[in-house]
Amino acid sequence: MFSNFISRLAPTPSGYLHFGNAFNFLLTYLLVNFHDGVLHLRIDDLDGPRVDRAYIEDIFIQLEWLGIEYHYGPSGPDELYTRFSQQLRMDRYYSAIEILKKAGHLFACECSRSKIKNSSKNIIYPGTCRNKKINFQNDNLTWRVNVPENTFVFYKTITKNKKKINLTKGIGDFVIRRRDSLPAYQIASLVDDIEMGVNLVVRGSDLINSTGAQLLLAKYLKDSFFPSVQFVHHTLMKNESGKKLSKSSRDYSLNFLRSKYKSPNVIYQQSAKILNLPFDGIQTIKDLT
After folding, report:
1. Contact at 8 Å (CB) between 288 and 33?
2. What is the pLDDT of residue 2?
3. What pLDDT was estimated at residue 1?
4. What stretch of H or E contains 163?
5. Is-contact 184 145, C-beta < 8 A?
6. Residues 84, 116: contact at Cβ < 8 Å?
7. 174's torsion region: left (phi>0), alpha (psi -120 to 50) or beta?
8. 187 vs 269: CA distance, rounded Å
9. C-alpha angle with apex 73: 55 to 37, nearest 5 degrees?
10. Could you tell me the pTM of the whole model?
């Protein structure tokens, strides 16, 4: 087990942050702080069309409101654009994709999302183009990672346990380069985590298959560091109807909660309650720590 954790907050600026984001941030902060570790702020702004400056500004506003301090990362939107944006690291992502392509781990796919949805009962890609040998240079294609039958990967939890993921059934042949030629989340997140030396990843339980995909990519890239990373997959925050919170969940947005409660102590108390910690009397992030 690492004596000092290095972790990151990795919000995507595609909407205003909500309580689920706050819980993830606080849990990550608490674990890193408890172990005298290092915390990065990494804003996943690769998806250009969905990124809005207002959403980026919201990230800094809410982190300040929550009292979460980080050691490395942008101090505001301007510094994000000039020094820390994923747009500035595109060559690193493309380089990794090219290594995977030359090693024969990728194939080009012409299937649309609607076609996959209509041909797959569980919306997992059914391997339609895997053996078609479509030219990578053709237009309007996605590039996918070939995930053979019975592909299992193992990851380490923060409590030193090993857990198994069935990637074939969980995610299938996943996208690594999108139809618009942008690197997909899986490769960008992996490359960034490796370069930052991240050894603790805290994410929602809905991203367990992403953990598996990134571990498989690390293996294909012959990276020796990422397999030693420890993972926490926490419970998802849901609304009254049992649906996972999304950035469209206005009543749970931090903007709304900040205007309603002024103090973030309600966020601290609810987070402590979810973690089965004593929550009465918690007023500050120091109390929570």
Report:
1. no
2. 45
3. 43
4. strand 162-166
5. no
6. no
7. beta
8. 36
9. 120
10. 0.93
